[in-house]
Each structure stands twice: as C-alpha cells, then as structure tokens.
Amino acid sequence: MSLPLPSPAILLHIGFAVSALLLGPFALTARKGSRWHRGGGYAWVTLMLGAALTSVFIRDYRLPNIAGYTPIHLVTLATFAGLGWGIWSIAHHRVQSHRRAMWATYISGCLVAGAFALLPQRYLGRLVWQQWLGLM
C-alpha cells in the first residue's frame, strides 16, 4: 500500500530535521571558539528553528491531541526554550550553561523526537519501515 504524499510542511520539516541531526554532532564537538564551531552552531540553530517552526504546521488528529497538537509537539516548546537558553547563556559568557543547553536540545529535539517520529504507527515510521524498507 502506498502512503499519500506528505504535505509541504512535512517535507520542509524533514529537510530541516535531518540536516540538524547530521550537522549537530559536528557543531557540538568542534573545538570551542573555532570558526567551525561558531559557523556550524549558527547553521545548526537555524536548522533547529526551521524544524521547530515547521512542526507547528504539522497536526495529527488521530492520536491524543489538543487542536491537532500531540505530545511530540512538547519537543517543539523544549527546542525553542533550549535554543533560547543556549543563546542567552553564551551571550552572557556562561559557557557550561550554553554547552548543556545545546546538548540537551540536540538530544531532545533530534534524537528523542526522531525516534518518536519513526515509531511504526506514525507517518514517517510507516514511510520508512513499510514503504521504503518493506519490513512491516
């Protein structure tokens, strides 16, 4: 069975999210203060903001929801908060706080949300596990 084509919001969200997932480790582990760290960090924050903003336009009325917003949308709020905390921290020279905020945002916004999105009953999970890999 073929799944319906994803909406433009989902396509944009996947593009931002996968790019942030791949760039994150480089930005987070680059030598602190280097051009790679700073440039990668700016790019990663931009990608994370894009992923968070596009997630606002993705709704699912089948799962427990409030106006189409499901529990995974709590990650959107955590992403905005984490990025804000990280940016504020580095602007105030609180390097440890910045590091913790950015790592926490990567783990929750990329790894946890990505794993949740790949559950077999969700659209992306069905697309990957059933349609692309034929495993289910």
From TrEMBL:
Pfam family, one: DUF2306
Keywords carried by this UniProt record: Membrane, Transmembrane, Transmembrane helix
Membrane spanning residue stretches: 6-28, 40-58, 70-91, 103-123
Record's protein name: Membrane protein
